[in-house]
């Protein structure tokens, strides 16, 4: 239990959106766990030690579990760090994160993985976990990983940081046959991308618009790589997590079925691919340069439809900050990635306001399914006896993203000037209010995530 947890909190008269239902309820929190869910006015109280949070008119959701972030520590802390980005996450209703291995040094050894956990234990505001990255020569480190403590093996099948592009077929077979943890793949075919890059450089030189990004990192590059990864998973029996799908064609690749906990091929989509389409390159330029790219309006529409149909299992962020100076470089020099975690939940709730999604669907894809798919114990749902990770949302409190409201260390967002109709009011992690009434509380509630496999 976090040392800073309240003795008891009662959230009163909230509209609980959880497990595909809505009801007004009182939720009692004792220490770091949910004591119970009660009819309004029925929650037990200890008068002198019970804090009341009046939540009439507010929605209460499970805390968001973001399975795909880059917090840049160690080695790239001029862009972001675990303290700053976990704080921004808390302000966005996120209570748990799983961080990727392409830092400096890369998280490709158990020693570096342990170092990241040590940093998070002392600095993170919320719950944390770290992937172990695969390379062409670290199979022994992957074998040593504890599947109850590592969410997945991260595998790059496209251009990435340093030597984290795995291209040796024998190595790929060995990684997929480990069977201890899911294999999470960034799928873009490097040969196709390299060929496209050379062709566009030859025609346009180094001065090229970011609008060419989805043509260089083409839909064919994604589909070819994703298809190859699925073929390898089917052959070896590995559980495959397809990260950040972007094309209409790829939405048919994950396994269909109602229970994400037992699917072999899992599909993930990121909030920026559900929000932007390629018309935004004209005004946003490199600020929306991600790998894989933001694509056409038809692709965005297909991704939203796939979320509704259950073909996409998880909505994540791929939160990946860079400085404005770095993003202001010419296209070929500007890094890919951008910050989104502080705004991910309100982005998806805005799609609910537009009639594209429902709050129940958002909760399923951002809270329930990550817990089920990764086997996260006691989180992702609001249930008696489970960890008290939750977020209060005002669905009718408009606000506009500005530099003054941004908590990312990089200090900018591609959403600046965007008005959202929902606001995050309170974020509670392990029974600790870490964000309240538009401000961080200065309190931490960091625990390492555990995985039941």
Structural overview:
The chain is globular and about 70 Å long. It has 13 helices and 20 strands. The chain has a domain at 63-374: Alpha-Beta Barrel (TIM Barrel), CATH 3.20.20. It is of the alpha/beta class.
Q: Brief description of this entry?
A:
By secondary structure, the protein is α/β, with parallel strands linked by helices. It has helices at 82-91, 110-123, 139-144, 169-176, 190-204, 213-216, 219-236, 271-275, 281-284, 297-309, 324-327, 344-353, 359-374; strands at residues 8-18, 21-30, 33-38, 50-54, 59-62, 64-69, 94-99, 127-130, 132-133, 153-156, 183-186, 240-242, 265-270, 314-316, 390-394, 399-400, 419-420, 423-429, 432-436, 439-440.
Looking at the chains present, what oligomeric state does this protein adopt? single chain
Number of contiguous helices: 13
Distance between the termini: 23 Å
The biggest sheet amounts to: 9 strands, mixed
As residue ranges, the low-confidence spans are: none
What percentage of residues falls in helices of 4 or more residues?
25-40%
Keywords, please?
453 residues, alpha/beta, single chain, six-stranded parallel beta sheet, 21% strand, nine-stranded mixed beta sheet, TIM Barrel, 20 strands
């Amino acid at each position: 239990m976090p040392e800073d947890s309240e003795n008891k909190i009662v959230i009163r008269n909230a509209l609980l959106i959880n497990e595909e239902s809505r009801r007004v309820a009182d939720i009692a929190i004792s220490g770091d766990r949910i004591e119970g869910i009660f009819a309004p006015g029925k929650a037990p109280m200890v008068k002198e030690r019970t804090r009341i949070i009046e939540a009439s008119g507010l929605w209460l959701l499970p805390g968001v579990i973001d399975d795909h972030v880059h917090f840049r520590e160690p080695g790239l802390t001029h862009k972001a760090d675990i303290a700053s980005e976990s704080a921004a996450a808390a302000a966005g209703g996120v209570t748990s994160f799983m961080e990727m291995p392409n830092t400096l040094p890369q998280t490709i050894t158990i020693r570096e993985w342990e170092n990241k956990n040590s940093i998070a234990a002392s600095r993170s505001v919320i719950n944390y976990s770290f992937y172990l990255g695969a390379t062409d020569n670290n199979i022994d480190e992957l074998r040593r990983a504890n599947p109850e403590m590592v969410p997945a093996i991260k595998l790059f099948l496209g251009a990435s940081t340093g030597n984290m592009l795995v291209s040796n077929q024998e190595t790929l077979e060995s990684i997929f046959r480990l069977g201890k943890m899911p294999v999470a793949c960034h799928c873009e075919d490097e040969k196709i991308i390299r060929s496209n890059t050379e062709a566009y450089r030859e025609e346009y030189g180094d001065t090229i618009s970011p609008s060419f990004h989805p043509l260089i990192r083409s839909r064919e590059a994604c589909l070819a790589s994703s298809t190859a990864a699925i073929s390898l998973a089917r052959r070896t029996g590995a559980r495959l997590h397809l990260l950040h799908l972007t094309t209409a064609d790829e939405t048919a690749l994950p396994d269909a079925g109602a229970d994400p906990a037992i699917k072999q091929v899992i599909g993930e989509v990121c909030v920026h691919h559900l929000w932007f389409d390629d018309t935004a390159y004209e005004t946003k330029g490199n600020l929306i340069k991600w790998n894989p790219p933001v694509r056409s309006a038809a692709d965005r529409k297909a991704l939203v439809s796939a979320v509704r149909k259950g073909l996409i299992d998880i909505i994540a962020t791929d939160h990946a900050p860079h400085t404005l100076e770095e993003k202001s470089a010419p296209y070929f020099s500007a890094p890919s990635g951008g910050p989104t975690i502080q705004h991910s939940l309100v982005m998806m709730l805005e799609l609910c306001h537009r009639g594209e999604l429902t709050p129940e669907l958002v909760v399923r894809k951002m809270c329930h399914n990550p817990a089920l798919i990764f086997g996260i114990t006691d989180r992702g749902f609001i249930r008696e006896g489970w960890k008290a990770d939750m977020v209060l949302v005002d669905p009718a409190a408009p606000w506009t993203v500005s530099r003054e409201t941004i908590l990312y260390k990089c200090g900018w967002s591609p959403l600046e000037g965007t008005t959202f109709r929902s606001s995050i009011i309170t974020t509670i992690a392990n029974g600790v209010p870490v964000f309240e009434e538009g401000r961080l509380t200065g309190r931490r509630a960091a625990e390492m995530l555990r995985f039941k496999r």
